[in-house]
Amino acid sequence: MATYLELKAQAEALMQQAEEARKKEIAEVVADIKTKMQEYGITASDLGFAVSGKKASKKVGPSTPAVVRYKNNNGETWSGMGRQPQWIKDAIAEGKSKEDFAV
User: For a disulfide at 91, which of 18, 50, 55, 96, Cβ 3.0-4.6 Å?
Assistant: First the structure.
């Protein structure tokens, strides 16, 4: 029976062989794809790939902070966009208008 170290060496050798086979197969597949793309006049953009070479970044929010349009005496602020904060809702319920807090 083989020892642990012998089995480990065999496993590493197999993993190296598998990686070499993978690289060879990928090279063949890429060459085949390129040939077919040339034959049929297919471009990367036809396949939905970005052409510029840059990865597209997905910006979630604005790149600059929102401008403060309303501020109360406690220093709480609101840009006027999105849902009204509770302090504005409470002030309106008390009979004030949001213009009373305009900056």
Answer: 96
